[in-house]
Amino acid sequence: MNNLTQTHENNILELAIIGGGISGLSAALKAKKESVNFALFESESCLGGCMQTTLLDDEFVAELGPNSFSWGEAWQEILNTLELKPLLQNPEAKQKLIYANGALYPASNPLTLFFSDFISLKTKWAICSEIFKTRPDNSPSEESIKDFFTRRFNAEFVSKLIVPLISGIYAGNISKLSMRAVFPLLAELEQKHKSLILGFLINSFKSKTKKLKRTINSFDGGFKDLILAFKTYLGEENLYLNHKLNSLKQNNNIWELHFESGKIIKAKNIVLSIPAYQAAKILPEYLADLNQIEYAPIITITVWLKESSLSEKDKQIYFKSFGFLKAENENINLLGLIFNSALFPNRSPADYVSGTAFLGGNFINESQIEIENIVKKDLLKIFSSLNENSIEIKFIKSWIRGIPQYNLGHSALITKVKNQLPDSIKLVGNYLTGISLEETIKSTF
Ligand SMILES: Cc1cc2nc3c(=O)[nH]c(=O)nc-3n(C[C@H](O)[C@H](O)[C@H](O)COP(=O)(O)OP(=O)(O)OC[C@H]3O[C@@H](n4cnc5c(N)ncnc54)[C@H](O)[C@@H]3O)c2cc1C
Q1: E-assigned strands of 342-410?
Q2: Matching fold, domains 6-49+218-293+406-442 and 295-404
Q3: What is the DSSP string of 400-415?
């Protein structure tokens, strides 16, 4: 897979795809289905990008990047083509938890949460009266997530519900993230119905019959199964690893791809499925503005907890839940924890349960030992039945430029960049249509 075959080195490719993450692989799948003469070039020695599965003790699946995906039409087409069966999450473990007021609250049912002591009476009133709050005529079209939800509800609503949601997806700053770019449908809902709650009620009534069931999935062997299936379908002869693209130059409507190794390949069309800051470096005359897109750092930590140390109450919480996210101003550092062995089989040995913990960017320069201590200290606070010897830290992965931030002005920036691009260059990836795997796949449509 590492050497360019004669075919691709001497001929002009119809399509060159740069980057072998989910967006590049999906673009390649589309090209293959349409019988386009393509080749995919990846800078690293393996495919997958953010999708990185490792096997602990040569057996147990641990994901260092995405842990699961939400089922949608985009996946349906890909998995049907690859003839790969997804692994549905254990339906018992569906409760989503929020860590607030120093405790774990079940948050899947909004009514249960509303009638608990999770939020103050003042915030309950802010929720009930949201329906009467009209959108002021002078409210800006571009607004931060924090400003939007504080305006519609209040500050406590934001720190208890919006902060956990955002840290779980973007690991970002809600004062900088753009409402229009991150939650376009909610922003529209306010425009259309003047109230989010009214809009929700009308929409859920209207769409009752045609709603696609959103389930959480992985694969038996984790995301490595997906990458293997892509490799088999796409054909190894079309996939080039260890090929870092340095620059693109146009000559008589043909693109010259200049690789770090000194090699030059020619192609008529290019799909750039690489992070925004890499695309900006490769084609600065068109894409320099993409340098403005920030990437938030995030650390994932795989932990194993001795099951026999957990109390019956903590076991009940663990095995019935997807995981938890932390509200603002709590006295723990973790952003959240996914309960892997509650969701999928083969994630830990018998007598252990596994979890993926998340820490934000402020810990990115800490040593491994310090990170281990922080995680252990927090887990002892959350599951009081654990003791230090019952927690094993198995893997720590630091993503220095982890998650693209859809900050204020993001949508306008993307529109401007796309408008000035020649038709022969297509941008795909997680900084365009949404950061989840599913939204990233959609950027290739
Ligand atoms: C820690 C973490 C947890 C996540 N959890 C989830 C989750 O549970 N569910 C979910 O749906 N989403 C999750 N996401 C988001 C999702 O995984 C990503 O948004 C998605 O995988 C990004 O895919 P991509 O193709 O856009 O980019 P990438 O995966 O970054 O792929 C880009 C590829 O381009 C290559 N490349 C870069 N520069 C060059 C160059 N010059 N030449 C050649 N190749 C180059 C890179 O090596 C890389 O392989 C998570 C992300 C992270 C970081």
Answers
A1: 352-360, 391-404
A2: no
A3: EEEEE--BTTHHHHHH
DSSP 260: T
Angle, helices 22-33 vs 223-234, to 10°: value is 30
Q: Is 64 in the pocket of ligand 1 (CB under 6 A)?
A: no
Query: Does any ligand 1 atom lie closer than 6 A to the CB of residue 230?
Result: no
User: Which of 54, 265, 274 to mutate to test ligand 1, by most ligand atoms within 8 A of the CB atom?
Assistant: 274
Atom of ligand 1 nearest to the CA of 439: 11
C-alpha of residue 49 to centroid of ligand 1, in Å: 5
> Considering just the CA atoms, what is the radius of gyration of the chain in Å?
23
Ligand 1 center–CA 21 separation, angstroms: 5
Question: pLDDT tens across 369-412, in order?
Answer: 999 999 999 999 999 999 999 999 999 999 999 999 999 999 99
**6-49+218-293+406-442 has which fold?**
FAD/NAD(P)-binding domain (3.50.50)
The CATH number assigned to the domain with range 120-206 reads 1.10.3110.10
% residues pLDDT > 90 (the chain): 86
- Type of residue found at 58: D
Residue type, 116: S
Residue of minimum CA distance from atom 31 in ligand 1? 21
In total, the chain counts a number of residues equal to: 445
Q: What is the pLDDT of residues 213-268, one digit of tens each?
A: 778 999 999 999 999 999 999 999 999 999 999 999 999 899 999 999 999 999 99
Closest C-alpha to ligand 1, atom 52: 65
- Give the number of other CB atoms < 10 A from CB of residue 259: 18
Using the mean position of ligand 1's atoms as its centre, give its distance from the Cα of residue 81 in Å.
21
265 token code pair:
């390949």
User: What would the two tokens of residue 355 be?
Assistant: 């979890």
Question: What is the residue extent of each domain of the chain?
Answer: 6-49+218-293+406-442, 120-206, 295-404
Read off the pLDDT of residues 101-148 as tens digits, 9 standing for 90 and up: 999 999 999 999 999 999 999 999 999 999 988 777 666 779 999 999
Nearest Cα neighbor of 243 from 226, 222, 261 is 261
168 lines ligand 1 (CB under 6 A): no
Domain over 295-404 is classified CATH 3.90.660.20 = yes
